[in-house]
Every structure is written in C-alpha cells, then in structure tokens.
Amino acid sequence: MTTVYDLTLDELTERLTAWGEPAFRAKQVHRQLWQRSATYDRMPDIPIRLRERLQTELPIQVEVLEEREADGGATRKALLRIGERHVIETVLMGYRDRVTVCVSTQSGCAMGCGFCATGQMGLRNNLTAGEIAAQAIWARREAPRLPGSTPQRLSNVVFMGMGEPLANERHTLGALERLTVRMGIGDRHVTVSTVGIAPAIVRLAEAYPQVGLAVSLHAADDDLRNDLVPVNKLWPLGTLIEAIQAWRDRTHRRPSIEWAMIDRTNDADEQAERLAPIALALRAHVNLIPLNPTPGWPSRPSPRARIEAFAAILEDAGVAVTIRDTRGREIAAACGQLTLEHEAAAAR
Ligand code: SAH
Ligand code: SF4
Questions:
Q1: What is the pLDDT of residues 86-103, one digit of tens each?
Q2: Cβ < 6 A, ligand 2 pocket
C-alpha cells in the first residue's frame, strides 16, 4: 500500500475525478499536502465530506509512537509508524540559524556495519519515496513548536536516519523530487549520507548536482574498512574515492567524510595520516563523531584527548575537520537505538 505522499498530482487527479470531484480539487489537496504540510483536518478550502473520504481511502499514515527530547527540547527524536507498517526514526534538530530533520530511508539496513544499531537489525523494508518525504512533512509541521524566540521553519534535510539511502536509490531519488520540487526546500539544503555505494554516488551527482554528499568512511585502508564497513568488499576504497571524485567534478561541491571515532579501532595516528591525503585530494570536510555505544557491539568511543590528537594531525595537514558532539543534537548517529529499545520493551 502506498501513502498519499506517493501519488503524483496526475494520480491524485485521477483518483479524485473517479470519485466525481472537479479537476481543480486535486490541485487544492496537493497544494495543502505539499506546500502547507496540512493534515486533512486542516484543509479549510476542501469540503468536509471529501476530507472524510480522503481520511478513509488515502490516510496520511504518519503515527507518532514515541518521542524523546534533548537539549531542552531543541532536539526531538520520534519513533514513527509510517504507511501502517514501518517503524522508523526521524530526528528534528533546532539550531540558532536553521532547523534540520534527519530522515530514514529504510526500516533496518542490510549493509551490516557492526557498530550501527540499524545495521544490527538487518533490513526489514525499503521505504517508498512518499514515506521518506512524509517524515519531512511531519518535521515541517513540528518545527514551529521547537523552543526559540522566533518561529522556526524547517530548512534542512539530511538522509542520515535508519537505512542506506543509495541501497534504496529509486525511492531516495523520488524523495529528493518531493522535497525540492514539491516542498520547495533548496537542493543545497539537502544532504545524502551513504556508506559508499560507488556507482550510485555518480548517478546521484547526475540527478541532483546541488544536493550534498556525506560518505561514511570510518577507515582509511581496505583491511580495516572491510571489518568496519563490510560493503567495502564490493566497492573498495580506491573505487569509492574515484566515485567521490567524479561526484566532485560534476557538482563542484565539497563532500563530507564521516568518521565514527572508535576506541583503539580506527583512532590511531596512522589512520589520520592515511586519511589526510585522501581528504585533501577530495577537498572533503571531515566530521569526527565519537562512537555512540550500541548494545550489540562491545566497543567504546575514543577518549576526548585521542579525538583531539586525531583531529590535530588532519588539521596540520591542511584538512578541514570538525569534532561533533554526542549530545542529543547529534543523536542522529544513534538512529536505530530507539527502535531497538521500543521493541525490547514491547517484547517484555
Ligand atoms: N547508511 C548511511 C546513512 C545512515 S547512518 C550511512 O551509513 O552513511 C548515518 C551516520 O551515522 C553514518 O555516518 C554512520 O556511519 C553513523 N553511525 C552509525 N552508527 C553509529 C554509532 N553507533 N556511532 C556513531 N556514528 C554512527
Ligand atoms: Fe546501514 Fe549506515 Fe548503519 Fe551502515 S551505518 S548499517 S550503512 S545505516
């Protein structure tokens, strides 16, 4: 079953005219859904009987199962049931100058990175384009309720929630169309994070050259990366770096490299020394993220001093680097954990 957000305007028109509605109705509903992020109970220009029928036959299907807050409410992590079947996580983050939502593209993930809570679940389902976009619609409705003196608008979308966007490529591209064209979010305010599916990175650059790219590298040699990120066996570092280079050539944008700092695993000076020339060649920005410990993997985050020493090696080599914090506002990295906890509680 598809959600109402999966329908194109033509498909919606077809559906509503089959119900005997005038042709302009579909346009009105479409505008309410995408430009106003409205639920059916908040569409004053649509007759009530039609809204009731829409509610029954094309329900919105975004149900909040659980919500957690951090940073005094500036970060909100929601467990959503979408399309009546997938349970996924969406995180809304309010900053001084922007509001970002982190969306999921799959329920679970097949890529098998051991340190990742979502990876530990395995793949359950792909989300549809409409189901991915529905999270941004939810976020746009919620954004004004974040604390802050001025009313806040959703400004940015990052594909860093559960799942591997480029392993669900068709629907990820479909979601990008919905976000940028229908919702009017600027392409430059959207970032796709990938584990490194090389050929799909090149296709992303062709389809959406203004959309940002983050690559989860985590290791700078194939042996270590094979362990941490098993898909490296399919697209080893050399192939991946070429793909990022091709992305850069096409987009002229600076890619990000994500690096989870894992105690005594990938945090040695030697890894920083190998990473530096890679990052320089790609003119990439490196984000160091202390590992968020997960129940299914025994490692710990690197100590602060180690992270700083690692960052210093990169900086000395001329690499742009940021150390991210693990407080609530970076909980996107821990996506999947809330789902696992929820399921454990349900099983008790
Ligand atoms: N599948 C995509 C996007 C979702 S994961 C990807 O892997 O890029 C979003 C980011 O969170 C990735 O950089 C991922 O490596 C990181 N991440 C996953 N589990 C983490 C953990 N336990 N601690 C810190 N970062 C983690
Ligand atoms: Fe999947 Fe990304 Fe987690 Fe790896 S880090 S298992 S690709 S969600």
A1: 889 999 988 888 899 999
A2: 109, 111, 113, 116, 118-119, 163-164, 195, 216
